[in-house]
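Entry 14. Structure prediction run on the chain below.
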Amino acid sequence: MKDKIISKASDLFLKLGFKSVTMDDIAGEMCISKKTIYKYFCNKEVLIEESTEMVHNAVHEVINTIVAKNYNAIEENFEIRKSFKEMFQSSETSPLYQLKKHYPEIYQKVMSREIEECNTLFRQNIEKGIEQELYRNDLDIAAYVKFYYSLIFSIKGNTISERDSVKLELQALEYHTRAMATPKGIIELEKQLLKTNI
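Output returned:
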Protein backbone atom coordinates (compact mmCIF):
# COMPACT_ATOMS: atom_id res chain seq x y z
CA MET A 1 0.00 0.00 0.00
CA LYS A 2 2.84 2.38 0.85
CA ASP A 3 4.32 2.09 -2.66
CA LYS A 4 0.89 2.62 -4.22
CA ILE A 5 0.44 5.82 -2.22
CA ILE A 6 3.89 7.08 -3.25
CA SER A 7 3.18 6.23 -6.89
CA LYS A 8 -0.20 8.00 -6.94
CA ALA A 9 1.18 11.00 -5.01
CA SER A 10 4.09 11.28 -7.48
CA ASP A 11 1.68 11.36 -10.43
CA LEU A 12 -0.46 14.03 -8.80
CA PHE A 13 2.49 16.14 -7.65
CA LEU A 14 3.99 16.14 -11.15
CA LYS A 15 0.66 16.87 -12.82
CA LEU A 16 -0.84 19.42 -10.43
CA GLY A 17 2.06 20.68 -8.34
CA PHE A 18 3.58 19.87 -4.96
CA LYS A 19 1.90 22.82 -3.26
CA SER A 20 -1.64 22.38 -4.56
CA VAL A 21 -2.07 18.62 -4.01
CA THR A 22 -3.39 17.84 -0.52
CA MET A 23 -3.50 14.59 1.43
CA ASP A 24 -7.30 14.71 0.88
CA ASP A 25 -6.74 14.82 -2.89
CA ILE A 26 -4.49 11.77 -2.76
CA ALA A 27 -6.91 9.85 -0.51
CA GLY A 28 -9.83 10.78 -2.80
CA GLU A 29 -7.99 9.66 -5.93
CA MET A 30 -7.15 6.33 -4.32
CA CYS A 31 -10.55 5.81 -2.66
CA ILE A 32 -8.90 5.35 0.72
CA SER A 33 -9.12 7.32 3.95
CA LYS A 34 -6.67 10.04 4.81
CA LYS A 35 -5.98 8.05 7.97
CA THR A 36 -4.53 5.24 5.80
CA ILE A 37 -2.04 7.69 4.28
CA TYR A 38 -1.03 9.00 7.70
CA LYS A 39 -0.38 5.42 8.80
CA TYR A 40 2.62 5.43 6.42
CA PHE A 41 3.55 9.12 6.26
CA CYS A 42 3.47 11.42 9.28
CA ASN A 43 3.08 14.51 7.06
CA LYS A 44 3.01 15.72 3.46
CA GLU A 45 6.73 16.65 3.45
CA VAL A 46 7.73 13.04 4.15
CA LEU A 47 5.46 11.88 1.33
CA ILE A 48 7.00 14.48 -1.02
CA GLU A 49 10.50 13.31 -0.08
CA GLU A 50 9.66 9.68 -0.80
CA SER A 51 7.89 10.66 -4.03
CA THR A 52 10.86 12.66 -5.31
CA GLU A 53 13.09 9.69 -4.52
CA MET A 54 10.80 7.40 -6.52
CA VAL A 55 10.82 9.84 -9.47
CA HIS A 56 14.62 10.17 -9.19
CA ASN A 57 15.01 6.38 -9.35
CA ALA A 58 12.62 6.13 -12.32
CA VAL A 59 14.49 8.89 -14.17
CA HIS A 60 17.87 7.23 -13.65
CA GLU A 61 16.46 3.84 -14.66
CA VAL A 62 15.35 5.40 -17.96
CA ILE A 63 18.78 7.03 -18.40
CA ASN A 64 20.57 3.72 -17.75
CA THR A 65 18.32 1.96 -20.30
CA ILE A 66 19.18 4.61 -22.92
CA VAL A 67 22.92 4.47 -22.16
CA ALA A 68 22.80 0.65 -22.47
CA LYS A 69 21.46 1.01 -26.06
CA ASN A 70 24.89 2.28 -27.07
CA TYR A 71 23.86 5.29 -29.14
CA ASN A 72 26.63 7.67 -30.12
CA ALA A 73 27.30 10.34 -27.48
CA ILE A 74 25.28 13.11 -29.15
CA GLU A 75 22.29 10.91 -29.99
CA GLU A 76 22.37 9.58 -26.42
CA ASN A 77 21.90 13.11 -25.02
CA PHE A 78 19.00 13.76 -27.40
CA GLU A 79 17.34 10.45 -26.48
CA ILE A 80 17.66 11.26 -22.76
CA ARG A 81 16.15 14.71 -23.33
CA LYS A 82 13.27 13.15 -25.31
CA SER A 83 12.52 10.71 -22.47
CA PHE A 84 12.49 13.54 -19.91
CA LYS A 85 10.10 15.50 -22.08
CA GLU A 86 7.74 12.49 -22.26
CA MET A 87 7.99 11.78 -18.52
CA PHE A 88 7.14 15.33 -17.47
CA GLN A 89 4.83 16.41 -20.29
CA SER A 90 1.75 16.43 -18.06
CA SER A 91 3.34 19.04 -15.77
CA GLU A 92 2.24 22.64 -16.26
CA THR A 93 4.77 24.04 -13.85
CA SER A 94 8.34 22.77 -13.70
CA PRO A 95 8.48 20.25 -10.78
CA LEU A 96 11.94 21.41 -9.69
CA TYR A 97 10.86 25.06 -9.74
CA GLN A 98 7.94 24.19 -7.43
CA LEU A 99 10.13 22.23 -5.06
CA LYS A 100 12.67 25.04 -4.88
CA LYS A 101 9.95 27.61 -4.18
CA HIS A 102 7.74 25.73 -1.72
CA TYR A 103 9.95 23.02 -0.21
CA PRO A 104 13.54 24.37 -0.34
CA GLU A 105 14.95 21.77 2.07
CA ILE A 106 13.63 18.87 -0.02
CA TYR A 107 14.89 20.67 -3.14
CA GLN A 108 18.41 20.82 -1.64
CA LYS A 109 18.31 17.07 -0.90
CA VAL A 110 17.15 16.33 -4.43
CA MET A 111 19.89 18.53 -5.87
CA SER A 112 22.70 16.99 -3.83
CA ARG A 113 21.56 13.54 -5.01
CA GLU A 114 21.40 14.73 -8.62
CA ILE A 115 24.80 16.45 -8.61
CA GLU A 116 26.65 13.21 -8.05
CA GLU A 117 24.73 11.12 -10.56
CA CYS A 118 24.64 13.79 -13.26
CA ASN A 119 28.35 14.52 -12.90
CA THR A 120 29.09 10.85 -13.57
CA LEU A 121 26.64 10.68 -16.48
CA PHE A 122 27.89 13.89 -18.16
CA ARG A 123 31.53 12.87 -17.71
CA GLN A 124 30.92 9.43 -19.27
CA ASN A 125 29.07 11.04 -22.18
CA ILE A 126 31.92 13.47 -22.88
CA GLU A 127 34.55 10.71 -22.67
CA LYS A 128 32.46 8.58 -25.04
CA GLY A 129 32.08 11.52 -27.47
CA ILE A 130 35.84 12.14 -27.48
CA GLU A 131 36.45 8.45 -28.18
CA GLN A 132 33.96 8.58 -31.08
CA GLU A 133 35.62 11.76 -32.40
CA LEU A 134 32.34 13.66 -32.03
CA TYR A 135 33.80 15.92 -29.30
CA ARG A 136 37.20 17.60 -29.35
CA ASN A 137 39.95 15.75 -27.48
CA ASP A 138 41.34 18.92 -25.85
CA LEU A 139 38.31 19.53 -23.62
CA ASP A 140 38.61 20.27 -19.91
CA ILE A 141 36.06 17.58 -19.08
CA ALA A 142 35.48 18.65 -15.46
CA ALA A 143 34.77 22.23 -16.56
CA TYR A 144 32.32 21.17 -19.30
CA VAL A 145 30.50 18.85 -16.90
CA LYS A 146 30.12 21.76 -14.49
CA PHE A 147 29.02 24.20 -17.23
CA TYR A 148 26.32 21.85 -18.50
CA TYR A 149 25.16 20.82 -15.05
CA SER A 150 24.88 24.47 -13.94
CA LEU A 151 23.01 25.42 -17.10
CA ILE A 152 20.46 22.60 -16.98
CA PHE A 153 19.66 22.88 -13.28
CA SER A 154 19.50 26.66 -13.45
CA ILE A 155 16.84 26.28 -16.16
CA LYS A 156 14.97 23.61 -14.17
CA GLY A 157 15.06 25.51 -10.89
CA ASN A 158 14.26 28.98 -12.25
CA THR A 159 11.78 28.45 -15.09
CA ILE A 160 8.16 28.31 -13.96
CA SER A 161 6.60 26.77 -17.08
CA GLU A 162 7.57 23.20 -17.94
CA ARG A 163 7.00 23.99 -21.65
CA ASP A 164 9.46 26.92 -21.49
CA SER A 165 11.87 24.73 -19.56
CA VAL A 166 11.77 22.06 -22.29
CA LYS A 167 12.54 24.66 -25.01
CA LEU A 168 15.42 26.15 -23.04
CA GLU A 169 16.85 22.70 -22.29
CA LEU A 170 16.99 21.91 -25.99
CA GLN A 171 18.82 25.19 -26.61
CA ALA A 172 21.20 24.41 -23.73
CA LEU A 173 21.87 20.96 -25.19
CA GLU A 174 22.63 22.47 -28.60
CA TYR A 175 24.86 25.13 -27.01
CA HIS A 176 26.71 22.50 -24.94
CA THR A 177 27.18 20.18 -27.91
CA ARG A 178 28.36 22.91 -30.31
CA ALA A 179 30.91 24.05 -27.74
CA MET A 180 32.47 20.57 -27.65
CA ALA A 181 31.85 19.21 -31.15
CA THR A 182 34.33 18.33 -33.87
CA PRO A 183 33.20 18.89 -37.51
CA LYS A 184 31.94 15.27 -37.43
CA GLY A 185 30.06 16.09 -34.20
CA ILE A 186 28.42 19.15 -35.79
CA ILE A 187 27.05 16.95 -38.60
CA GLU A 188 25.58 14.57 -35.99
CA LEU A 189 24.17 17.48 -33.99
CA GLU A 190 22.43 18.93 -37.07
CA LYS A 191 20.98 15.47 -37.80
CA GLN A 192 19.58 15.22 -34.25
CA LEU A 193 18.17 18.76 -34.36
CA LEU A 194 16.30 17.94 -37.58
CA LYS A 195 14.69 14.93 -35.86
CA THR A 196 13.67 16.97 -32.83
CA ASN A 197 10.24 18.41 -32.38
CA ILE A 198 10.28 20.73 -29.37
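The longest helix spans residues 104-131.
Filed with the rest of this week's runs.
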